[in-house]
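Take a minute with the sequence and fold tokens given here and flag any structure token that looks odd. Thanks in advance.
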Amino acid sequence: QELQAQISRHEELAQKIKGYQEQIASLNSKCKMLTMKAKHATMLLTVTEVEGLAEGTEDLDRELLPATSAHPSVVMMTAGRCHTLLSPVTEESGEEGTSSEISSPPACRSPSPVANTDASVNQDIAYYQALSPERLQTDAARIHPSSLPPQEFYEPGLEPSATAKLDDLQRSWETLKNVISEKQRSLYEALERQQKYQDSLQSISTKMEAIEMKLSESLEPGRSPESQMAEHQALMDEILMLQDEISALQSSLAEELVSESPESDPAERLALQSTLTVLAERMSTIKMKASGKRQLLEEKLSEQLEEQRQEQALQRYRCEADELDHWLLSTKATLDTALGTATEPMDMETQLVDCQNMLVEIEQKVVALSELSVHNENLLLEGKAHTKEEAEQLAVKLRTLKGSLLELQRALHNKQLNIQ
């Protein structure tokens, strides 16, 4: 806002300079016109005796001419003609013939001899030079420059000092205008850089808000941890890119602080630096939140993997239990048919061997069943709710199988004793 205010002030100064230049050009034209009219007035001078003048002229001469100038054969210029020719201000306003101490130059208020024409013109120029800027502005506004080309009015021998001063003033105005234009350009560049910084900060802040909203969202139970982990990784990449933007902006601002550009406002630079510091701290907080959420996702993924492992183990235990159950049923059927009727000694020996082999196999099944029961007990302790429920059902089945195996083992042992 301060830069924009300075730019507005410089634009106002530029407009004033333009107006002053127009006024200078108008005054320059007026001086040249006065010179031309003075030359023209010299051709209208009348050589006459003071006594031969008209009554009106004598009255006017008594008011305007000093006593020492009333000498015969002096070349004179009538007061009325002089006033008409050398007073463009009153001529423009329609007040011809009136003499004003304020609106007319000194030369128009007294006649001049031919020998002093140049001095009279220079006196007119000095009169305008002595006026205040406000008075010059008023006179310039009331005077319309002649339609004749400037070279027709300009004679360097008649007004060298006035022309030189006007040229110096014109050059001063041009120099000031160039300085103001350069200052305005620098201010616009500083304002443009500041606006660029503001836009970058706004963009970074908006991105931060979006990231914070995503980080504040809770984990979705219905989605797989793998997909959520992939989405979070994309968010982490976005955070890293945003960190790079902040670092680049900090580097650019640091370079500008080192260069110490006079057009840039130190307060604005300090405010931008403070804002960047706040954004950097905010980014650190975002990175901490992102790391925490990533840890939660990793834990959830680990839990899911463990749950899958437990389910797979439970499925495997059920399959092994089903195999034991099937083996137990088939073994009972075999024992009922093979060992039921044995009368010959050879048959008895074969049954004894079969019985011993079955006892060894049953012993192995009992050991395997015991290990399966231990694993199932671990599932009961570590598993989730639905896993525990299935593990409890499996534990009941395993206890039943173990009881059946022990019962079959006792029956075979008794059979072995009977055969022996």
